[in-house]
Write a structure and sequence with these properties.
Blueprint: H1 19-25, E1 33-36, H2 40-43, H3 57-68, E2 73-76, H4 84-90, H5 92-98, E3 102-104, H6 119-134, E4 139-143, H7 157-175, E5 178-180, H8 203-225
Parallel strand pairs: 1-2, 1-3, 3-4, 4-5
């Protein structure tokens, strides 16, 4: 049977937020120097979705935060394909020179693409990243990987993702980072979520991730002022 459901757009998507509504949720946000490091997930890489803007989540979020802090400084050094080692070697110094007060760090998805990932090494690399990030005094944010991200050539892929997400949650809790947990998010079930490469969220997913980042940080602001 052919579906007669009306396709979602950015305006009708229940998980998306308008710029005005998102900025209102972040009213009073103190962050003036926002940095993003890592890989394609950090960069917001993804194909254009019909009915949605063509920005990745990180650029979307910067635009929203700029409505609250018009003089916001924004740095995004994320590189497609970067591993945790790559990020440590090539992005940390620039991030520290920038001096962020809000910093998004990666969760290491490209480290899973080895024949046999060394999760001890991955955790060690991520821990070093958190240590260096925490030295800036910035509030840290990160994602968990969504279930829709699948690499069929690895039969144990789901277990790899779950293990990495567990590492991410544990380190984030230890260092007081805000986790935007995408693993069980309902958006994973959408047929048009992934880009043509079947890895990256398309811009419909990017818009949802931006909205979830706003919600998570708005909740953080409420806890700080309660």
């Amino acid at each position: 049977m052919t579906s007669t459901a009306t396709p979602l757009t950015e305006e009708t998507d229940p998980f998306c937020l308008s710029t005005v509504d998102a900025a209102a949720m972040l009213s009073g946000a103190p962050w003036k120097r926002y940095a993003v490091i890592g890989d394609s997930l950090s960069a917001g890489t993804g194909d254009k979705s019909v009915g949605y803007g063509d920005q990745g989540w990180s650029d979307r979020f910067a635009h929203i935060l700029r409505q609250v802090q018009p003089e916001l400084a924004y740095l995004n050094t994320a590189v497609i394909g970067a591993t945790t080692v790559d990020t440590l070697q090539h992005q940390i110094d620039g991030m520290r020179d920038f001096g962020p007060d809000l910093l998004h760090i990666p969760c290491g998805p490209n480290d899973l693409l080895r024949r046999s990932p060394d999760f001890g090494e991955i955790e060690q690399n991520l821990r070093r990243m958190y240590e260096l990030a925490a030295e800036t005094g910035a509030l840290l944010t990160t994602f968990t990987l969504g279930r829709a991200y699948v690499v069929p050539v690895f039969a144990d892929w789901t277990e790899r993702v779950r293990t990495l997400n567990d590492i991410t949650r544990s380190l984030a809790d230890e260092y007081g980072a805000v986790v935007v947990d995408m693993y069980d998010h309902p958006v994973n079930a959408r047929e048009n979520l992934l880009s043509e490469d079947r890895i990256h969220f398309s811009t419909s997913g990017q818009a949802v991730m931006a909205g979830e980042m706003v919600r998570a940080l708005a909740a953080t602001l409420r806890r700080r002022t309660s």
